[in-house]
Write a structure and sequence with these properties.
single chain; mainly beta; Pnp Oxidase, Chain A; seven-stranded antiparallel β-sheet; 1 helix; extended
């Protein structure tokens, strides 16, 4: 069996879900993409039920729109110098004085060589929730922050 046949992209094994990266905007704002969890990459088609005239055995289901959930990112609490923290602070604590500047967020699933094998972009994203998980003096865990983003649309790029 060749090495190429056993890779996650073209061979026997599905890709691992633990090796991924997140990029904000152009990615030139500094490295701020170390997350423990990315969720919310989902698409669902809404349908409308239309009964058949004179036929009571079934109902037609017609597509109406694509629903997308919010994108959720979790990580250890980042320092105040983080560009993502600065953006969230600007949006959440800005009292709507300045316009919210949306950004493109890209999520890439990586292979064992750190090359993207799947990717999704989320256009016009902005934070809508910034949560710090509870503290507990009886556990020895990292303090976690969760950031939830709304976006206009998303595309699978590979």
């Amino acid at each position: 069996m060749s090495a190429a046949a056993t890779t996650s992209e073209g061979g026997l094994y599905p890709p691992s879900a633990f090796y991924f990266k997140v990029v904000f905007g152009s990615g030139s704002e500094g490295v701020d993409s170390s997350f423990q969890d990315v969720s919310g990459i989902s698409f669902e088609m809404s349908t409308e039920e239309v009964p058949e005239g004179g036929e009571n055995r079934f109902v037609h289901k017609l597509p109406t729109a694509i629903k997308q959930s919010n994108l959720e990112l979790k990580r250890g609490i980042a320092p105040a110098s983080s560009p993502l923290v600065a953006w969230c602070k600007e949006v959440m604590e800005g009292d709507f004085i300045a316009a919210i500047v949306p950004r493109t967020i890209s999520v890439y699933l990586l292979n064992e060589n750190a090359e993207p094998i799947r990717g999704w972009t989320f256009a016009n994203a902005f934070p809508i929730k910034w949560e710090v998980e509870g503290f507990n003096s009886t556990k020895n865990e990292v303090a976690i922050e969760k950031i939830v983003f709304s976006y206009t649309y998303s595309n699978r790029v590979m």
